[in-house]
Design a protein that fits this description.
Layout lengths: L11 H8 L4 E6 L6 H14 L4 E5 H6 L9 H20 L3 E5 L5 H10 L5 E7 L2 H7 L4 H6 L21 E4 L5 H14 L12
Parallel strand pairs: 1-3, 1-4, 2-3, 4-5
Helix pairs in contact: 2-8, 4-5
């Protein structure tokens, strides 16, 4: 009797055992200058040093590549977020922790990404920072250009930003340190059993 061939599919539990953790999408949203990329980079480094399989998807970099054909109207912003969400979902299915830092201004667009990823693997992180503080930082000079009328449809100035109403993690980036923000996200990953307690010694 011919033995049955082993299954060629790879189960989620096999990926978890190989990586030592579950897959997840950590979606960081907030105004330009709120500190999203800084938080994402620090979180990625911390998780990497803990032995996690992790990758950060920066909204600006994706804009320059995968979404270079899109503008900044609300429909084009929605398509931009849809594409980033699909890529993040694939990373998550592969057992990686993917960190997305993107303004993603509209709640409906973020909700569509959340619907792709099974709970509790989607963690929305709101990088909360007053517009005045973001303008004062203005690392790329974008607010100055927007105020001068040189940038159309700029979030927070001439285009809306809808803050999360029930984000899993809220980081007050105007007052809290980057380490505080990283600690909050790690605590959530631990609480949701995506990473093991032994991988986080923040308490």
């Amino acid at each position: 009797m011919t033995p049955l061939a082993p299954s060629l599919s790879i189960r989620d539990e096999e990926r978890r055992q190989r990586a030592g953790h579950g897959g997840a999408v950590v979606w960081i949203t907030g105004l330009s200058g709120a500190g999203k990329t800084t938080l994402a980079d620090a979180l990625q480094r911390t998780l990497f040093d803990l032995g996690c399989q992790v990758f950060a998807l920066d909204g600006d970099k994706v804009r320059n590549g995968l979404c270079a054909d899109l503008g900044f109207s609300l429909p084009e912003r929605a398509e931009n977020i849809r594409r980033i969400g699909e890529v993040a979902h694939l990373f998550c299915q592969a057992g990686q922790i993917v960190i997305v830092s993107a303004i993603s201004p509209m709640r409906a667009d973020r909700a569509r990404v959340r619907a792709l990823v099974p709970a509790p693997q989607f963690i929305e992180v709101y990088c909360r920072c007053p517009l005045a503080v973001c303008e004062a930082r203005d690392p790329k000079g974008l607010y100055r250009r927007a105020r001068a009328g040189q940038l159309a449809e700029f979030t927070g100035i001439s285009s809306p930003y809808e803050a999360p109403e029930a984000a899993e993690v809220v980081v007050d980036s105007a007052a809290a340190s980057v380490d505080d923000g990283v600690g909050k996200v790690l605590a959530r990953l631990r609480q949701m059993k995506i990473i093991k307690a032994a991988q986080y010694q923040g308490e």
